[in-house]
Amino acid sequence: DDISNNRKLIDDIKERTGIQTRDDYSKNIKRKREYEKIFATQNEILKSYFGEGNGTEEEKITYWQQKLNEYAPYKSMAKNVIYSEKQVTTLQSEKDKKINETKRIKKIIEIFYDRLKEIERIVNNEILKTTEGEYLICRNSNDLVVLKNSLKTFIEEKILQKDLTLKVKTIFDEIEKEEEKKVTTLFGEKSPVSFYFNTITGGLYRYATYNAEEKKIQVVMNNGKFLEVKKLSSGAYDQLYLSIRLALGEKLLKGEKGFFIMDDPFVKSDTGRLHKQFNILKKLALAGWQIIYFSAKDEVKTCLQDEIRNKQISYFEI
Is 79 a member of any domain? Predict the structure, then answer.
């Protein structure tokens, strides 16, 4: 029975496979191994191009088939092209170079955009100082041209302002020189300032001079020594200031008579010097000048008591 069953099983296998002899079986085994080898080779090729995918063998095959279908539209474009691994390597190398070059260019573009942003910031915030409504955007070469034109206009305006400023400065310099000349004429050994200063100080100082280069006033003592104004006593300083006021008043009015308002200019003078100083004011008054004199110094009233009594001056107590 076993033999009979085995024979029946063998007959079934022969019928299913179409194999009748041992030799046919050996040939099929050999063919199977060849197919397995081809399958393994094709597997490696597909994995090298598309990756392995996931899942069972059937799922991997489905994955590869999808990938191949994506390239199907291009299969007729290279009918006469013979596959070459060397050419693939060369093309891959060129592709890598292009990718690296693209990355390099993108990096340059990023740096360029950063520079545009920095230019935008400097132009708006530091140079033109634009308001929100005037803000200039800089994102491309066209924007850069707009900024360039705005800067050109800005520079032209500043150059014009500079030229105008220099012209105005020249005018003011000329005016200053003219005024210095006028001031210089007030000083000197025989000047009005020196006359008043010498008289008020009782000859202690010979004359006052003006140094135009240093823009300083100096006085010459009766011993010939020069002295800077800042080294004068407070009393002598006030007396020099009064002398300048008197001389300047005469010069400005060009011979016409005016008036002076004085607030205790001789407050630091002793009685003897006070008489000399008031003698000058009396001479000015006799020459036609009007003088309004304020003082809290009792000696002033004493010094002028004869003029007050004779009503040569108007005296008021406040």
Answer: no
